[in-house]
Fold this protein.
Amino acid sequence: MRKKLSKVLMKGNEAIGEGAVRAGCRYFFGYPITPQSELPHYLAKRLPEENGVYLQSESETSAINMVYGAAGAGSRVMTSSSGPGISLMQEGISYIAGAELPCVIVNMMRGGPGLGNIAPAQSDYLQAVKGGGHGDYFVVCIAPASVQEIIDFMYDAFDIADKYFTPVMVLADGILGQMMEPVEFKENQEMELPEKPWAANGKRGRESKNIINSLYIVPEDLEEHNFKLKDKYSIIEEKEQRWEEYYTEDAELVLTAFGTSARVCKAVVDKARQEGLAVGLIRPIMVWPFPQKAFDKVIHSAKQFLTVEMNTGQMVEDVKLAVAGRRPVYFTGRPGGMLPIANDIFEEVKKLMSGGAE
Amino acid sequence: MKKVFTRPESFNDIPMHYCPGCTHGIIHRLVAETIDELNMVDRAIGVAPVGCSVFIYNYIDCDMYQASHGRAPAVATGVKRVVPDGVVFTYQGDGDMAAIGTAEIVHAAARGENITVIFVNNAVYAMTGGQMAPTTLMGQKTTTTPHGRESDANGYPVKMAEMLSTLDGSSYISRVSVHDPKNINKAKKSIKKAFEVQMENKGFTMVEVLSICPTNWGLSPKESVKWLDENMIPYYPLGEYKVPAEV
């Protein structure tokens, strides 16, 4: 059993750094961008204490390719950025997915498109959960909603990356990155990191060389590789769906939201329940694989769904796929760095529950 | 009978995909000979580019990476930081390194990243069909400069060895050629020196190798050798541009 220690107050961005170090990450490559700056600041100090490497790259493009090299050499490695930088990384993420390398990528989402702004948003959902770069692949995508979850999920992120040889994205927003919350760290224990006999770190007596590669020039070979990846993604979809249910057992209206939006939605559910309305919340913790099972579970009592996001409607597409036409699915959201307001959502809920959907 | 010439041990005995007359095979061989002579096949880690030489990972018998276009120096940086006792090299063409990969190569050099870059300059994008490269000479005809490269439309060829030698992080920078046996021998010495400098942790090293591309130049191999000698060497002078004090 891990012993619980006393609580400390920590910023979300710093918590990612500390969580990563505790999960065995010793290498970080990144390029400055708001609103994730406290994370590289933290790791620039913290990683050398653990004989790790913090390196500021010349661009996000370079950062993700340094991650490719460091992951191929068998290390636990991470990078972080926000929207515009994540877009630049997509080329590298595609190569990492193709070469089946484990790594963790943090996206502290901000408003877009283009330069957008630096205010918190959930504007990169579709980019994150639909692959994001070129080719036929997915990235496992975990969406914490509190600083404590950030700490806890960093272990999971690195473990899942190693287990399935896949990039894992931590998808959060500027609010989670900037806010301070009390967190508890599990007592440090000896980590047993997995052996990586496939790593290209020099033959050192190995009989054959290791090659880190995503090139399959013969169509038959690439098809086989694509199907192999597909099989892996199917296993991940079966085994790694994660979500939180909040008052869903008898809910007639089920809200769906992730990250910061889900915290607002919990307040909406509380208010609705106080007024005797059967409202619940499904909070996807993994946004890829999307928690299809959560929707199958509530469909017996749910009459309608309302998706709440900090964008103009992205996850709602996956909710519609999960509900598969069995019930109506509605959307409300605030883009551009604005937060959905609990009272506004509650008004929407009341309107829907009185049969007043537009 | 005494054996005087043989395939390097770290050079895989498989058919090469290069066009007749291409000098990539010679340059690969020089790298493999160096790996053998410095007895470092167990520590050598190579990064292949996008371009004709992408399959170098099949030919040299050490651990290898295939990098996206131009990013090999960033990949090599990630590898070297995790494996500091590895002997890490990239092998890149002129399109890969001198165009799309300029940010990566300049900053790897500026950081003094302890890696060796083999930069093959044949003045053309070869794999994609003979388009103008950043190193294409003035007046040189390519598939995208059908009337020859003109300065007002296409600017001027990039001299990578000269440019990188101005950076403090660069330790050993040279330009060599493989168009005749005498120059091949010189190229070999320079490549070996670059690896030795890396193994002494002295910083960033690069050897630019002038190379022929008969297929895309539209010349015979023999004519190509002559063209390189008469046109490339005057614009891209051979020699050592930066040498660490003690070497």
